[in-house]
Amino acid sequence: MNSSIQEMSEIRDFASPARFHPILAVALAKRPTGLALFVLGTLNMLTGLFGISILPCPLMNLTGFPCPGCGLTRACELLLRFEWQQALHMHAFVLFIIPGLIVIFLATVPRERFRRRFLTWLAAVESRTGVVAVILVALVIYWLLRLVVMPENMLKIVENNPLLTF
What we know:
By secondary structure, this protein is mainly α. It has one domain. It is built from ten helices and no strands.
């Protein structure tokens, strides 16, 4: 009998709605942070269409080592030109950029009442699913795999952009 009570407790703990600490909702709670992320991300993506880089990669410029987002700006450019296959070949996480910018927009730009409700919803989703943490961990794993398994592809990405943008 005690083992079934313990199992129920473990299931309840597993199904608990607050299993993860929100990352994105906390970062976007401060409107200036969210606005800066949205404006810089959007401008970097759109100016890239014209071959202009406003955000050189700090990791690459400081260390000569490609960052996890290496090729992401160029992948966004390809995505905006509807070159889906090339965009995915450049960086698989390109599919998260537009939805990410929409989430950042909704968390920062609208009126305070909507913004607070959206941030509460976002925090709840993050707490239950850990989706942002999962995406970040997956990004690091993807980056490491690109460096170890496909270094020639990573070198092509780095060599093809003299501006060394994200």
